[in-house]
Specification:
This protein is of the alpha/beta class and 441 residues long. The protein has one domain (3-432). It is 35% helix and 13% strand. The protein contains 15 helices and eleven strands. The chain has helices at 3-6, 45-48, 59-70, 96-103, 122-127, 139-148, 159-167, 194-197, 212-226, 232-255, 269-282, 284-287, 307-332, 405-416, 423-426, and strands at 32-39, 49-53, 78-81, 88-91, 107-114, 179-181, 291-298, 338-343, 364-369, 378-379, 403-404. The strands form two sheets. Strands 1, 5, 6, 7, 8, 9, 10 and 11 form an eight-stranded mixed beta sheet that branches. The chain is globular. The relative contact order is 0.23.
């Protein structure tokens, strides 16, 4: 299989299927990887995890607002206990595989995370006396904010891309990019230096079979890429394309002749994406990769109607696919060197909307999985599930975040290898928050 048939690019569509069979590579020294699973559309965190008995509330408080329209039956929830031993919660019934990882200490829940520019009170939000992120309830704007974690006027790139720029020296002398997307163009991975921050897409000469005609087409394309036009913009675009070709060949060579991982993955879109992630991790030593960041995505979380049955399918897919990835990291002996985490542009209202659905909200709950997780816990201040309660800023169950995206991301970036004094370069808002990093890894 030629480099062109693999289908990689540093700024394009979707990462091509990696159909070659290959083997576990020797473990790279000090290898670390982050895997971001973005739940596009705004996941309903209120049904991701449900309070059963805490100091502030109970399952009855949850059901009082959600009702039988959106409320999940208590006997179907997967019971977990916070590290304190005093609070119990229930994970969504479809998260059974992830509950097992929680019970093994390999998964933690980070509660009520959201985009913030600085700490803000409910009263300040309602009075409009403190700055808030632009267009809080807009899909496109909040997807950008979750991927960028930046302030107005800051560079238009992603926090993972900025982190990749800072740690790419650890991959030297290889030029294989730190960032890999299986979900098309990713602002999340875009850094200042494309050659070290992103491989992402479908490149040009698919279907090359090594014939004379295909080789001639490849050579012609190379001449176009290397042509000196004298125009800086075109030259830069050509360089990015050339880098993509080189990365595709490098990965193709790394995969050649290897054997497959045994861990089975679901045949869903997400399962296939995470299987590709595992395959690339599997040849990390051959690529010379000490640091890698992966971006995958799962859509259809915008549940304005039929929320319960739609989320049931999505979370079942996510749980099975994440569990398979964890099993693959165990097989490769790198379960302590890989952290998988979720993102989503916002949560959903606790109060149902018409059509048995939910509307756009703000803070929501997220999952972090891996052997580096410190403990099975529900981290942060869980919101009080009451309309007009202390955490509800609109009266519909829209939670004011108690943890900023900057704190959540900085904790992951710090574990990944970004120096403490460089974290503000990745998260410009971080100086406004205390503590800067959390204790889940």
């Amino acid at each position: 299989m030629g480099a062109q048939s693999l289908g990689l690019w540093a700024a394009g569509g979707c990462l091509g299927r990696l159909s070659r069979v290959y083997a576990a590579a020797p473990a790279a020294v000090d290898y670390k990887a982050l895997v971001c699973i973005f739940m596009l559309g705004g996941n309903d965190g209120n049904n991701l995890i449900v309070p059963i008995k805490t100091e502030a509330q109970s399952y009855a408080d949850y059901l009082r607002v959600r009702g039988t329209t959106l409320g999940l039956p208590q006997d179907g929830l997967g019971v977990i206990t916070a590290a304190s031993g005093k609070e119990t919660y229930g994970l969504h019934p479809q998260l059974g595989p992830l509950r097992e990882l929680f019970l093994r200490g390999k998964l933690t829940v980070v509660s009520n995370v959201g985009t913030l520019l600085k700490p803000i009170t409910k009263n300040a939000y309602q009075q409009g006396s403190a700055p808030v992120p632009l267009n809080l309830f807009s899909h496109s704007d909040q997807q950008q904010q979750w991927q960028m974690a930046s302030i107005p006027g800051a560079p238009h790139n992603g926090w993972a891309g900025r982190a990749a720029d800072l740690v790419s020296i650890q991959n030297a002398p290889t030029k294989f990019p730190v960032g890999v997307s299986t979900a098309g163009n990713s602002l999340f991975l875009t850094g200042e230096y494309p050659e070290v921050s992103i491989i992402n897409g479908q490149l040009g000469l698919d279907g090359s079979d090594g014939s004379l005609a295909e080789n001639a087409r490849d050579a012609a394309f190379q001449q176009i890429v290397k042509f000196s036009s004298g125009m800086a913009l075109i030259q830069k675009a050509n360089q990015v394309t050339a880098d993509g070709l080189d990365a595709a060949r490098q990965l193709d060579a790394a995969l050649a002749g290897a054997s497959s991982l045994k861990a089975p993955f679901p045949t869903t879109n997400l399962g296939k994406q995470l299987q590709e992630v595992a395959r690339i991790m599997n040849v990390r030593a051959n690529l010379g990769a000490q640091r890698q960041i992966f971006y995958v995505a799962l859509g259809d979380f915008d549940t304005h109607s039929d929320s319960v049955p739609r989320q049931k399918v999505l979370l079942a897919d996510m749980a099975a696919s994440m569990s398979a990835l964890y099993d693959a990291t165990v097989e490769m002996g790198i379960e302590h060197q890989v952290l998988t985490f979720t993102e989503s542009e916002f949560g959903r209202t606790l109060q149902p909307s018409s059509g048995a659905g939910t509307d756009h909200a703000w803070g929501s709950h997220h999952l972090v999985m891996g052997g580096a997780v410190k403990r099975a816990d529900v981290c942060g201040a869980f919101p009080v599930l009451a309309l007009q309660g202390p955490d509800d800023v609109t009266g519909r169950g829209v939670w004011l975040p108690s943890i900023s995206l900057d704190q959540y991301g900085a904790t992951l970036a710090s574990w990944f290898g970004v120096a403490d004094d460089a974290l503000v370069k990745v998260f410009p808002n971080l100086a406004s928050f205390t503590p800067r990093t959390l204790e889940f890894v």
